[in-house]
Amino acid sequence: MSRDGKKILRGVNLEVGDREIHSIIGANGAGKSTLAYTLMGLQGYEHEEGSLTFDEEDITKLSISERAKKGITLAWQEPARFEGLKVRDYLAIGAKGNGGITEEELREALRKVDLKPDKYLNREVGEALSGGERKRIELASIITMKPKLAILDEPDSGIDVVSLKEIINFIQTLKENGSSLLVITHREEIAAASDKASLMCEGAILRSGDPIEISEFFKNRCIPCDSRVSPPKAV
Amino acid sequence: MNQITLNTLSTEMAEISAAYTAAGGDAAVLRKHELASLVVSGNKVLNANGTEGIVLEKHETEYGVDIKMTIKKGYKIPLPVHLCFGLVPKDGLQEIKMDFVAEEDSAVELIAHCTFPNAVNVVHKMDAQMLIGKNASLKYTETHFHGPHGGIQVIPKAHIKIEEGGRYYTNFSFVSGRVGYLEFDYSVDAGKDSICEMVTKVYGKKNDKIKILEKISLNGENARSVIKSRLAITDDAESEFRGITEGHAPRARGHVDCMEVIQGNAKAEAIPIVRVDNPLAKVTHEAAIGCVDKKEVETLMARGLEEDDAIDVIVKGMLA
Q1: Alpha-carbon torsion (A59, A60, A65, A67), positive or negative
Q2: Is the separation of the CB atoms in B90 and B119 below 8 Å?
């Protein structure tokens, strides 16, 4: 995957297990979001080499919709706004593939992200929502979709620090409900709640393994790294 | 309550009621005596119910109806007044002249459905003069339905004068069926401390042609206004939008907001014009024409919608 002649992803070799929470950590510009967009198949992030396998099926050439129908979805770091689209309708879209959704399920999804259903169900997913409210609605839409693999790009960004525990609970609830998760994060706490973590640097997966160990490595070796032009030497 | 039911012609009433339903209206409201309503088919007044506080005069002309509606001083009409203008045959001409007055301290909501379900060669013209008196309020919603043929010219023209402290909100919606040819021309003179909000939503298809001219002159101190237009055009449809706001008085505030989504071979032109000749007034504008936002489409695709369905959801939301 390259942009303007520059390689953005390089030889990424990554596996997310069934019902696994897998965190991706790395400095700004390491290629974390690009990896998320590539996995979802967004326009402009088409792969150039290699393959993507999901449930033992090659999905490399599938469109975004086709990947979503297989059970993959993505929550953007800064979610799009939709003028005129009600929260209830937005949440119901992802549930269509599962035979629809009940009113109580809609309400429960909002409660899971700490939003009052009566206050939000009939509001627009538009500009009037704060960044934090919009982000919570995005996470609720992941709950209603019940994906096999949820890719969460910085799920805590825009949400106040005291809510970090709720985000971790949300991620673990998704796992308990049967989802695998690929979580892009800067948060040590979120990484610590993962089953596995991978460190990205300069578009490559530098190392994968125990999340605490990866977090420590990131703090001690990557954050102090002056240039971050070249990956630090593995120890 | 003063009920005045005139010229109830059962067959025509049934036909126009069906057309009213096709336009998105609830025909039952036209039969409720506790609600004020007016039903005009071609040049016939089929039904006219007034309620306390509303004076309704109508005069059938060769091709339409002249209407004078007055909301009496101090009356806050509790339930919306329902209006239905239409023509059931596939061809014809309808000319509506409307003289509306909301007297001082009155308030009313008018909900109009204009329905031409079989139009192949139809012309509908409306010429309205509206006066919103001191501290009076008018909320006016107009929804059109022209059926599938696109054989209609709709030419609504209105001048609205808002006096001190008056409020005028209008929502003109044209989102189901064909548009045909639309030439929309509304102008507003806004007085001191008045508020004016004009919203137009139009969905043009095939070879529809849409011309929208909205002009607000903020003549009084503290007058405030918003012009908001949302247009979606597809196939070979064409649209022209002119949104003009003039700030002539101290602390007058206006904004023009036009968003157009185009698909297929459609062509769109949007010109927001702001004119200010008072240094204490401020008028702003924004206009965007283009395809549907890529991130919005991809978000809905990532929830499982096909691209065309995602675009449909986004456009319908914008026009809702």
Answers
A1: positive
A2: yes
Lookup: tokens for B132: 């919103």
pLDDT higher than threshold 80 for residue B75: yes
Please calculate the CA angle A30-A54-A79 and round it to the nearest 5 degrees: 50
Q: Are residues A176 and A78 in the same domain?
A: no
Whether the predicted pLDDT of B5 surpasses 80: no
Contact B176, B205 (CB under 8 A): no
b/e A91-119 (16+ beta carbons within 10 angstroms → b): bbbbbbbeeebeeebbbebbebbbbebee
Range of the domain at A25: 1-54+63-71+148-235
What is the distance between the alpha carbons of residues B173 and B191, in angstroms, rounded to a whole number?
26
Residue A17 and residue A87 share a domain: no
- Residue A186's pLDDT is what? 84
Question: What confidence tens digit (pLDDT) does each residue in A35-72 have?
Answer: 999 999 999 888 778 889 999 999 999 999 999 999 99
Arithmetic mean of pLDDT, B42-70:
93
Domain shared by A155 and A221, yes or no: yes
> Of A146, A164, A193, which residue constitutes the final position of a domain?
A146
**CA-based nearest residue to B298, from B289, B290, B307, B308:** B307
Measure in Å the smallest separation between the Cα of A41 and chain B Cα atoms. Answer: 9
Q: Which 8-state DSSP code applies to residue A42? A: -
Residue A178: which pLDDT band, with cuts at 50, 70 and 90?
A: very high
Residues forming beta bridges with residue A208, ordered by sequence position: A198
ipTM above 0.90, yes or no: yes
Q: Which of B268, B275, B173, B158 is nearest to B225 (CA)?
A: B275
Q: What is the pLDDT of residue A1?
A: 65
Residue A161 and residue A67 share a domain: yes
What mean pLDDT, rounded, does chain B reach? 92
Q: Rounded distance, CA A210 to CA A191, Å?
A: 9
Pure H helices in chain A: 32-40, 64-70, 87-93, 103-112, 117-120, 131-145, 164-176, 188-192, 211-217
* Per-residue pLDDT at B218 exceeds 70: yes
Query: B26 in helix, strand or coil?
Result: coil
The yes-or-no verdict on residue B8 having pLDDT over 50 is no
Question: Which residue of chain B comes nearest to A73, CA vs CA?
Answer: B302
Give the nearest partner residue to B304 out of A84, A85, A94, using CB atoms: A94
Q: Look at phi and psi of residue B74 and say left if phi exceeds 0, alpha if psi is from -120 to 50, else beta.
A: left
Q: Which residue of A has its CA nearest to B303?
A: A94
Domain count, chain A: 2
**Chain B residues within 8 A (CB-CB) of chain A?**
230, 293-296, 298-307, 313-314, 316-320
Interface test mutation site (partner B, options A70, A73, A74, A93, max chain B beta carbons within 10 A): A93
Express each pLDDT in B159-211 by its tens digit: 999 999 999 999 999 888 899 999 999 999 999 999 999 999 999 999 999 99
Residue type, A80: A
